[in-house]
Amino acid sequence: MGIKILLNGAGRIGKSILKQLLVDKKFEIVAINDINPSIENIVYSINYDSTYGKIDDKFKVIEDNFIKNKSSKIKITHYKDISQLYLDGIDILIDCSGQKVDILKLRALNVKKIILTHPEKDADINLILGANEDKYDRKNHKIISTSSCNATALLPALKLIDNKKKIICGDIVTIHPLLNHQRVLDGSFVQSATRDVDLNFEFGRSSTQNIIPSHTTTIKACSYSIEKFNSDLISSNSLRVPTDTVGAINVTLFTKEPSIKSEIVNIFLEFEKNQNYPIVLNNFEALVSSDFKKERYTTIIDHRFLEVKNSMIKLLLWYDNEWGYASKVVEILKYIDLKKVS
Ligand SMILES: NC(=O)c1ccc[n+]([C@@H]2O[C@H](COP(=O)([O-])OP(=O)(O)OC[C@H]3O[C@@H](n4cnc5c(N)ncnc54)[C@H](O)[C@@H]3O)[C@@H](O)[C@H]2O)c1
Questions:
Q1: Which GO terms describe its molecular function (predicted)?
Q2: Mind listing the pLDDT tens digit for each residue in 276-329?
Q3: Probe ligand 1: pick from 16, 32, 34, max atoms within 8 Å of CB?
Q4: Atom 32 in ligand 1: which residue has the minimum CA distance?
Q5: Strand (E) positions, 117-246?
Q6: Ligand 1, closest atom to CA 245?
Q7: Distances in whole angstroms, Cα of residue 38 to Cα of each of 34, 46, 323
Q8: Which superfamily, per CATH, for 150-321?
Q9: What is the separation of C-alpha 270 from the centre of its chain, rounded to a whole number of angstroms?
Q10: Where do the structural domains in the chain lie, given as residue ranges?
Q11: How remote is the CA of residue 266 from the centroid of ligand 1, in Å?
């Protein structure tokens, strides 16, 4: 029997996690909670997806709020308040609802672990593989944030360079696909509690017709995992672009030690050879964003654009912000190794 999981929120990230866990026998998604009141629509949106295609083993609605395919049977509920969820027999609750959570309410829930798919400074740990997994305390950490897609991509690269060359300052620009909280055509402003987006006028503009500049919480999210990588050290902003998935980050770093290009190239080549999880991938080919769709590696260094000038290092990173990030959530589920908890 697999580790039993309840997924709260079956949107872009929830469904990517679901599809990756469906083929992993260690885990069993036994319940999905989503405020979408239509169980038929939930099934439809799992079976068919414009970004990643349709699934072979399709789900059907069966009696009593259950959905089923050849391998799984999942209970569907529609509670808005996370503390109303029926958690009997659930080992892990994964929250992908995009709603701000009350940490005290979460701590009271009767499950072994709670995974939050957004950065959360009050979580027990904001865990990024390749950055701070050694700080995970199996016994005492119950609420685990898996940070953001951008921080998951960026922090392993920052840490690798800092270890060898000591970063003294830098700047990043995230080039990010559109997200469900934006508007298709021009509309009213947008707010998003978990993304620290408050009254954002630009996100109320058409996501398909514009490159939209905005602030990004990437560096703040990095600082929740490793404190020194904060906005005093690194400035940031973001450009939202009209593509469905796969983001890029343009990174400029100034280091205490000057470098030559081959040293920086070698840092990433070495890490790729010795890593325990799919984190760093080195790309030398003439690829574009859609070539990285469904890629599980989340710090993809594009060596065509790696530049070194004395103490300045310039990098271009790629990552699939949905599938790649979800695959890290799945790796983290394995890393926290529930069998050793009880
Ligand atoms: N999309 C990305 O690229 C990405 C990457 C990393 C992390 N995240 C984070 O993952 C979370 C979800 O993002 P998303 O892009 O999947 O959003 P989404 O809007 O596609 O999905 C959110 C889902 O949660 C449901 N929901 C809303 N309120 C709920 C509630 N109170 N209880 C239960 N379900 C509720 C919605 O009906 C929807 O199905 C956010 O916190 C986001 O910051 C997103």
A1: NAD binding; oxidoreductase activity, acting on the aldehyde or oxo group of donors, NAD or NADP as acceptor
A2: 999 999 999 999 999 999 999 999 999 999 999 999 999 999 999 999 999 999
A3: 34
A4: 80
A5: 125-126, 143-145, 167-177, 190-192, 197-200, 212-214, 234-241
A6: 3
A7: 9, 13, 25
A8: Dihydrodipicolinate Reductase; domain 2 (3.30.360.10)
A9: 25
A10: 3-148+327-340, 150-321
A11: 37
Residue 201 CA to ligand 1 centre (angstroms): 20
Closest atom of ligand 1 to 152 CA is 6
Ligand 1 within 6 A of CB of 148: yes
Three-state secondary-structure class, residue 53: coil
Per the annotation, the verdict on 149 as an active-site residue is yes
Please give the average per-residue pLDDT across 172-194, as a whole number. Answer: 91
For 142-180, the pLDDT digits (tens) are 999 999 999 999 999 999 999 999 999 999 999 999 999
Q: Quick one: tokens of 211?
A: 């490159």
**Active-site pick, 96, 149, 169, 222:** 149
Q: How many helices (H) and strands (E) are present in the chain, helices listed first?
A: 7, 19
Instruction: Give me ligand 1 centre to Cα 33, in Å.
Output: 12
Q: In a mutational test of the pocket of ligand 1, which residue from 38, 46, 117 has the highest number of ligand atoms less than 8 Å from its CB? A: 117
**Would you say the pTM of this structure is higher than 0.90?**
yes
86-133 residue pLDDT tens: 999 999 999 999 998 899 999 999 999 999 999 999 999 999 999 999
**Best CATH choice for the domain 3-148+327-340 from the list 3.40.50.300, 3.40.50.720, 2.40.160.20, 2.40.400.10:** 3.40.50.720
